[in-house]
């Protein structure tokens, strides 16, 4: 299945979908020293979808979006998401061109997200369509 952007999913208001993925990578801007309101709303809205999954972060902003990820990490525990340590930070003025450093950071973060996603699979169990 190809990755989808939140806008492509067009989630309905106050209605949760069946859990579909084992892990997620959240891409977020830093907006007023936090994540965007749209992402916060989506996290709240799809509460059950996130449970017992893993997540990694790619953030961007003037300082790499690190404060947005700090806030997201606090939310992850409440949503029962195992967030991985590695993250990718992109500084608006310097990092939006190919760089080996960013490729390594992406690879490390994705490896961790996949490993945790697979490790958490037994917690989701057959009741959620997982076996």
From TrEMBL:
It comes from Actinomadura luzonensis. Residues 16-90 form the NADPH-dependent FMN reductase-like domain. InterPro entries: Flavoprotein-like_sf (IPR029039), FMN_Rdtase-like_dom (IPR005025), NAD(P)H-dep_reductase (IPR050712). Coiled coil: none annotated. The lineage of its organism: Bacteria, Bacillati, Actinomycetota, Actinomycetes, Streptosporangiales. This is NAD(P)H-dependent oxidoreductase. Gene3D superfamilies: 3.40.50.360.
